[in-house]
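From: lab user (bench 3)
To: helpdesk
Subject: output format question, protein + aspartic acid

Hello, I'm new to running complex predictions and I'm not sure whether the block I got back is the full result or only part of it. Here's what I submitted:
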Amino acid sequence: MIKKILLIYTGGTIGMIRNKESNKLIPFTLDSLLLSVPELQNDELIIEYKSIKYPIDSSNMNTHVWVEIVDIIEKKYHEYDGFVILHGTDTMSYTASALSFMLENINKAVILTGSQIPIGVRRTDAKENLITAIEIAGMEKVNEVCVYFENQLFRGNRTTKINTEDFEAFKSPNFPVLAEVGVKIKFNNYCFKKSNAKFTARKNLSNNIAILKLFPGIKIEIIALIMKNVKGIVIESFGAGNATNDPKLAKLFEDMINKGKILINVSQCIHGNIISGEYESSAPFENKNIINGKDITTEAAVTKLMYILGLTNNDSEIRAQLNKNLRGEVTC
Ligand code: ASP
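Helpdesk reply: Thanks, we reran it on our side. This is the complete output you should expect:
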């Protein structure tokens, strides 16, 4: 059966050209990008195209553009069998994570891909990424938001960008890949099954949040200042969830929680879990109202927080939702 795929262009290196005056890479138009891939003319797939209003370098990504992308998918949800999003690599993992929360009960593939070298350049990695992402989106095996890059299909909210130079730019440090691509496309058994629940697009996100990366010597007054100005904070702690056991830090966390702040503890290590209580230095995080982020990525923690703060104002409900595995973003 012929499948219909919607290709959504947001910008990124994949569609960039070098500006002659500044000699810098800038986003180009979708039409010019498509001319570089005649392979997309195909009898088994109908591919249609849509661009966001102003294609961007993904370092300019923000919550409004996420809503714009979700709007496109929501409006076209029933018309297409799958969606492929062309996106810059810099913030692709944030977008994949955000979309995984915003597209509730999705029963189709939404695959983000991009490239390290623009599509018009001879050694580009863009064509393979794009063609295979489209192929997978039409296979009806994937019912979630994924990243496809350099022969691997990942659960989107498990990814992180790990390399600025290699073609293998992404990793899913705490979850197996969903499919490996060689001569054949081999799916592992980790993809979500289709669900009967109704698809809902959630478009209310709160960005009244911050990420705080601890470092040896950080001033507790500075942590206090940052926390004072936000509703929620993702704290990147050391190792398995440790910080200085200066009692002032535990006291600050307690005061902030009493003021209705939401704290999530994630690790600065890319592999492994937060193990509460293992070391004496995990003491500041032992307050039961601090969310244990377990093996979540910072990208998924931040976007999960934005999504949940957009759903409810009730602090205990916010914490209850944060403690759940909502879209496969955390191992429980
Ligand atoms: N700065 C670019 C972007 O994220 C990098 C890339 O696409 O690889 O849009």
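A quick orientation on your result: Residues 11-13, 57-59, 88-90, 114, 116 surround aspartic acid (CB under 6 Å). Let us know if anything else is unclear.
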